[in-house]
Design goal:
The longest helix has about 40 residues. Helices cover about 75% and strands about 0% of the residues.
Length: about 325
């Protein structure tokens, strides 16, 4: 297992380098000018100096190398220094956002808690809701619970978040006035009343994302359970007089989780990158909204950094999913 993990990590290095290069070249070829919003009264020579200050006067391969060095060496040292409190940050230029002229890593660190509060909580709730529903729906196939669960899952999976989000805002915020329309990212939770206010403003975006995540995962869980319930080992276990709860919750559930683990693991990176549509609708100042703003402003350092971080998370959780296969099924060996 150790050798397999090491091989995968070593293989991930050239893969991520290639991904970063492709993203960088696509951003280079994309239309848009970071100085487009500047006043037209700025003299051409001053505008050219501003472009040079952003590093746009250098060749693309030099700018890519500088960004790669800062991303792989400088920024991790600053992140570790901020997490540990030790003076271990390396000297050198950092990746700066063209919009704010602030370090990209610092901006991401400021936005990440908002994303984890909303998107992370909704994903955890979606998994906790989806797995029991999928298991019981498969065990009681064609029952009223299965029919109701299938209906809700189809509705949740079919309706996009840009429809359910405004619909909930219209009903519960405008008509009933139960929840605030705008998400207040400046709210500081320091007592019981502010905690309740935080729960109120999180309720609608969390529900929208929980419904979507639970609908998707529960369908996979139900299909996998139905496939395993008809296997020979289940009939053999029942013929031996094994307790039905043990058969379903230990043997069948463990084998059924193998394909579902892939869906859950590959969905975790979306927690860290944010739900772009939902965060935009509810004005959640998270990473998804940050990415949209950076794209509109042609902020290449911000877009490139966020995209590569997302790629790293996908590669990492792909590896974690493969390792979990061996844990769930002892027959799977990688060495």
């Amino acid at each position: 297992m150790f050798n397999y993990t090491l091989r995968r990590l070593l293989l991930a290095i050239p893969t991520l380098l290639f991904i970063a290069l492709i993203i960088f070249l696509l951003l280079e070829l994309s239309p848009g000018d970071p100085l487009a919003d500047m006043p037209l009264t700025i003299p051409p020579e001053v505008r050219e100096q501003m472009r040079m200050a952003l590093g746009l006067g250098e060749a693309w391969y030099i700018r890519f190398y500088k960004w790669l060095y800062m991303f792989a060496v400088i920024e991790p040292s600053h992140v570790l220094a901020g997490m540990t409190g030790l003076d271990m940050a390396l000297e050198g230029p950092r990746i700066l956002s063209w919009q704010t002229r602030s370090p990209v890593a610092d901006i991401i660190a400021q936005r990440l808690p908002q994303t984890l509060w909303v998107v992370g909580l909704s994903y955890v709730l979606g998994v906790l809701v989806a797995v029991p529903i999928g298991v019981y729906s498969a065990y009681r196939q064609y029952s009223w619970f299965d029919q109701a669960g299938s209906f809700v899952s189809m509705v949740g999976f079919s309706l996009p978040t840009f429809f359910t989000g405004p619909l909930l805002m219209l009903i519960f915020a405008v008509w009933l006035g139960w929840f605030p329309i705008i998400y207040d990212t400046t709210l500081v939770v320091d007592d019981w009343s502010t905690f309740l206010e935080q729960l109120r403003q999180m309720a609608m975006p969390v529900f929208v994302l929980t419904l979507y995540n639970a609908a998707q995962i529960s369908r996979f869980m139900r299909a996998s359970m139905l496939d395993n319930l008809n296997q020979d080992y289940v009939r053999t276990a029942r013929a031996k007089g094994m307790n039905e709860r043990v058969v379903v919750l230990i043997h069948v559930l463990r084998n059924s989780l193998i394909p579902v683990v892939t869906v859950i693991a590959l969905g975790i990176p979306t927690v860290f990158t944010g739900a772009i549509i939902t965060e935009t609708i509810f004005r959640v100042n998270g990473l998804g909204q940050l990415l949209i703003t950076a794209i509109y402003a042609s902020d290449i350092p911000m877009v490139l950094t966020l995209s590569v971080v997302f790629a790293i998370l996908i590669v990492l959780f792909n590896l974690i999913a493969d390792l979990l296969y061996a844990f769930l099924d002892p027959r799977i060996r990688y060495d």
